[in-house]
Design goal:
Number of strands: 14
Low-confidence stretches: 197-202, 270-275
Largest sheet: 10 strands, mixed
CATH topology: Rossmann fold
Distance between the termini: 34 Å
Number of helices: 6
Number of domains: 1
CATH superfamily: Vaccinia Virus protein VP39
CATH class: Alpha Beta
Length: about 280
């Protein structure tokens, strides 16, 4: 497939990642967050489908990602612990639909990643706060006295390695000799949510924060490696990969989001040139 945008180590494809990924190879890091199937208003994708269809999509994506990674390459898959929704209202399409409550997405995704041939690594809890012992959540609902419920203040990452656990390069020395900070090597990261970086202004509804992109890149890849986000959105991960000295590949089905990502990477190049 011909790239939608290609410049300064960044390549963007406008298409379905399940069709684009099989044509790629030698990726070190595939880090992404697929649609959660909870009714978010994406540009061209309807985010409410039957769960068997969603898991079929995940299976095809995982198979393609496994094929595109080189041995020692790492998958970082961001999913909710549980998709807990009742009636969903998609205002842009004026539709109402009821989907299942309590779908165990994280647990099933772990099994799916393993079935795709990955070696499971320790999963990650992304606590949506920059401070320990403090949790931020959207909304203030707490349910009722006979049905109290927990609002989502954290998400999960499923990590998998292809064939073996050792990334290419490095010395293999253990302990503090490697460059990753000790706090990053814990399975809870306290990082502010992407929507707290500023107003979304009608763009992508579920952006990653800049610092989360950086940690994933610095933890699980090295300079010169190829990092890929197959559900790219508006390209924040690509821009940070470029800044961190990685080659970046993004795949996105929405041309609107592809254009936003290309402009983001293009403007970054102009700023660097001006300096």
């Amino acid at each position: 497939m011909k790239p939608y945008y290609q410049e300064d180590g960044v390549t963007i494809y406008c298409g379905d990642c399940r069709e684009v990924l099989p044509g790629l190879s030698e990726l070190q890091l595939v880090a992404t967050s697929p649609p959660y199937n909870v009714g978010l208003d994406y540009d061209v994708y309807h985010d409410t489908i039957p769960w068997p269809d969603w898991y079929q999509m995940l299976d095809r994506f995982l198979a393609a990602a496994h094929s595109a990674l080189h041995p020692g390459g790492i998958l970082a898959l961001n999913v909710p612990f549980v998709a807990n929704q009742g009636e969903l209202v998609n205002r842009s399409r004026r539709e109402r639909r009821t989907i299942s409550r309590g779908e165990p997405v994280f647990a099933k995704s772990c099994l799916k990643v393993q079935e795709a041939g990955f070696l499971l690594r320790e999963p990650l809890v992304w606590a949506k706060s920059p401070y320990e012992n403090t949790a931020y959540a959207v909304g203030t609902g707490i349910g009722s006295d006979n049905n109290p419920y927990l609002r989502m203040a954290a998400e999960a990452f499923v990590f998998g390695s292809k064939e073996h656990y050792h990334m290419p390069g490095g010395t293999g020395k253990r302990g503090k000799s490697h460059s990753r900070p000790m706090d990053w090597c814990k399975n809870i990261w306290h990082i502010q949510a992407g929507w707290q970086d500023g107003k979304l202004k009608g763009k992508h509804p579920a952006p990653w924060p800049w610092s989360l992109c950086d940690r994933l890149l610095l933890m699980f890849s090295n300079p010169g490696d190829i990092a890929c986000d197959p559900f790219m959105g508006t390209g924040k991960f690509l821009l940070r990969a470029k800044v961190q000295g990685r080659e970046a590949i993004g795949i996105e089905i929405s041309e609107k989001y592809c254009e936003a990502a290309a402009n983001r990477c293009r403007q970054s190049t102009m700023k660097l040139t001006a300096q």
